[in-house]
Amino acid sequence: MSKGILLVNLGSPESPNPKDVKKYLGEFLMDERVIDIPYAARTALVKGIILNTRPKQSAAAYQKIWWEEGSPLIVISERLQAKIQKNIEYPVALAMRYGSMTIKKGLQELVDKGVTEVFLMPLYPQFAMATTETITVLTEELKQEFFPDLKISDLKAFYNRPDYIEVLSNNIAKHLEGKTYEHVLFSYHGVPERHIRKRDITKSHCKMDGSCCVTPSKAHEFCYRHQCLEVTRLVGEKLKLTEGSFSTSFQSRLGFDPWLLPYTDRTIERMGKQGTKTMAIVTPAFVSDCLETLEEIAMEGEEIFHEMGGKEFTTVPCLNDDAEWVNLLVKWINNWATSKNVEA
């Protein structure tokens, strides 16, 4: 079989103008694994309310972080793709879950190059309905409809793999070298609490009581909250961070339903009010910098911290196209291609 790689990230609007942002948000928010309510209710919420108010606000945010080359997420992903391609003999395609760089186009690109076996690589360390699951489900649907003879295997959540934790920790240490910080905040993209309960394969383990995520269970294979907390714990151990000097929070909530706590913006506000003068923040739910990291955290987060009396706010970049990260992905690809365990 001829092998090929498909990297998949979230996506981005074509431009930061409100029309393109509205089109992108419409596709994103109408995904039943992002807003998981019945179709009629989702349509009323998204098309009747959100898309009448949010595109202008989001467009203004995109305009703040847009690069001359285009969307930061797309540019970074393309750089990552190019660096991986230089190090392996198999074709590497890039796709986005939302937007014009569709997964169908990515699969077709590989098929046109003679590929018959694809390694699907969702670029998310943790499993979540709104990230990894929506990618793998859509890819399977496309395979059944358009590429029935294509063999596809996928990279599972890699949040706790020692080699990933080492690369992530090294990246954080590198960017914090010489910086002053009293506290390191690990901020992850938020999801509604119901998403966690829906993916509890035991149907009984998840109680959202503060203990279930640290109590061993097979439910953790699909528990986003547990996987986020585990990244924080493992990196804290790797970097020898002292107890109380680091913590976890969740950003980017939408609507009025309960989302994972504590919230990042309120955590930053509270720490500033309590007298923290220097802090650093990392965003390990993403491997590529994007709107959520560049605007919501690096800009809005810093503004909140300074308003509350904080002095020095350090934002650690995502892995992006860091050489160690590229080398790790190349290792996983080669392990897959030679039929070895990807975790080896």
Tell me the major beta sheet: 4 strands, parallel
Q: How does CATH name the architecture of the largest domain? A: 3-Layer(aba) Sandwich
Helical content (DSSP H or I, runs of 4+)? 40-55%
User: Which class of secondary structure composition applies to the elements?
Assistant: alpha/beta
How many structural units, i.e. domains?
A: 2
Mean pLDDT: 95
Overall morphology: globular
The overall strand count is 8
Give the topology, please:
Elements: E1 3-11, H1 18-29, H2 39-65, H3 72-87, E2 92-98, H4 103-112, E3 117-122, H5 129-146, E4 151-154, H6 162-176, E5 183-189, H7 193-198, H8 224-238, E6 246-251, H9 264-273, E7 278-282, H10 291-307, E8 312-315, H11 323-337
